[in-house]
Structure formats: structure tokens, C-alpha cells
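Notebook p. 47: complex prediction with adenosine-5'-diphosphate.
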Amino acid sequence: MAGEARTTVGFDALGTDNRISAYGPPARHAIDAAVGRVRQIEREMSAFLPGSDVSRIGDAAGRGPVPVSGDTLSVLEEACRVSRLSDGAFDATARPLSRLWESCRSDARVPTADEVERARGLVGWGDLALDGGAGTAGLARAGQAVDLGGIAKGYAADEVARELRAHGVEHAIADLGGNVIAVGARPDGAPWRVGIQNPAAPTGTYVATIGIQDETVVTSGVNERFVVLGSRRYHHVIDPRTGWPSESGLLSLTLVGPCSMTADALATALLVMGLERGVDLARSEGLRLVAITTAGDVLSTFPLE
Ligand code: ADP
Ligand code: MG
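Predicted complex, C-alpha cells below:
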């Protein structure tokens, strides 16, 4: 219905800025429920909250499985599936490496080769045992930890869309720190338009815009969180094979498709894998792709406007 009122709410969660806009009378209630859902997912999956499922799995590593929520189990299952599909470019147990690089970024130093090797030796998604029946997850070796930082926002985006629909919303758009998801089309029937940031230009400068309806657009980029030390830039997506920030010739990778959780994990995976193997993987998962290379080229598997 044209002329319906829009409600927009911005909030901090999952370590990022989030925004939900929804149309029509149910919007206010629906958004409140969706925000509550995101906060619940954060309490379950944050690596930074001591009592979260993710923290408890790490605390118990090497000592057996711990009970986790149905949410956490679903995300861990998808994280393992993408770990396998990507041959470990995305690794559900990347936390020892991401933790090392996080602390080095905040201390403005490069880790030693020893530190990198020690962390790398603890990463291996094959050591993560999930038991859907018992509702538990466990890691084989002490010092191991799971990392859902590259997938949980996608799951949260899917859940936001589900919650909005369940409350009767027919037109909405949500942005969870770079994971955009649409409910329906715009109230006037046109597709929602999502800009793809030019990583080399100020925020709000787009290389293209994508029209979506009931779909998600997820971008993972190397220009989001990084530190510059000497002449090098160290960013937050780590190649588990080397233990160093990925160097696949990509500045940003955007995936478009039905499931934000899958798109989120695969966007992180493809940033590590590079395009050569990445394009086929995206296609086999039913995702469209836009990549921006370090040379500044924009490549896509579909026509861009
Ligand atoms: P953002 O969080 O900036 O949207 P991503 O979805 O690419 O970007 O997720 C990056 C996060 O994923 C890192 O902060 C870290 O927690 C985690 N991570 C980094 N490298 C890997 C990897 N190779 N496999 C799985 N998770 C990773
Ligand atoms: Mg991701």
C-alpha cells in the first residue's frame, strides 16, 4: 500500500551498527521483537561475552561437549558445512587466529611467527563435534575455540526478516553491519536498492546498486577493520592455511541470494579463496557475486546497473 508509514530503529549489537526500517501498522512491534532476537543471538554467539555458548565451548575445549542453544547449533552446523565446502578457507574454529590478530591490531604490532604458528596449529574444524540430538558442541583440544564472527550476523539477519514477517510486516529492509536483508519489495512495488560500497572511496560512494526483493546482500571487505603497520595493512579476515590476513587479490566480495547466514560465511570464505575457485562455489550455492579486486576492477556474475 503506497503512503504507509515507515518506522526506523537503529541499535548497537554484534559489535556493529544495525538498522531496521519497516512499513505499516505492525512495524513498531515487529521491530522490537526483531531487535530482541538479535540481542538473544548476540548473548548466545558472542566471543566477547563470558557466558555465551561460544565462550563456554572454548572454556571446555579438550574436556568434552557442552549444551548449547538450538540457534547456536544451527549456526555451528552451517559453519561446519561451509568450512568443508571451502576446504577450510572459512574455518568454524578460526578463533585462536582471529583472537591473536585482534590483540595485535589493538597493540599495533605484528605477531611473531611463533605466535602465528601456535594459533594456526589450534585451528581445525574437524575437531569440532556437534550432536544435534543431545544439543551439544565440543572441541577436541584445549586452547581451541569457535569463531562465529563471520556468520552470526547473517543468521541474525535471516531471523530479523523471519520475525518481521511473523509480525505481519510485508515491506522492510534491515542492515546488520553490512548484511542487508529485504522483506518483500518497497511499498510502491519497486525492488529495494542496495549500494555496493567502493572500498577505495568515502562511505556512501557506490560502484553499483543491486535491486532485491525477499533477498539478502552480504559484503565482506578487507577495508573494514584493519591496522596499518609500516607500509602494510593488516585486516580481519585470516587465511587459516597461512595464519596471516588473506591475500587473494580481493578488496571486497558481495554475495546476493536467499540465505544471509550462508552468504555471510561464503563471503568470508571467498575473500580468502579468491575468485578462481570462488565463482563456482557461489554459483553452486545459488548466489550471485560482485567482487572488487585490489586492482580496482569490478567483476560480477550478473549484469550490474
Ligand atoms: P564483518 O564481520 O566485517 O562483516 P566477515 O563476515 O568477513 O566480516 O567476518 C569477519 C570475522 O570472521 C572476523 O572478525 C573473525 O571473527 C572471523 N574470521 C576471520 N577469518 C576467518 C576465517 N578464515 N574463517 C572463519 N571466520 C573467520
Ligand atoms: Mg562473513
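Notes: The mean pLDDT is 95. The CA atoms of residues 128 and 283 lie 27 Å apart.
Next step: compare against the earlier run before touching the bench.
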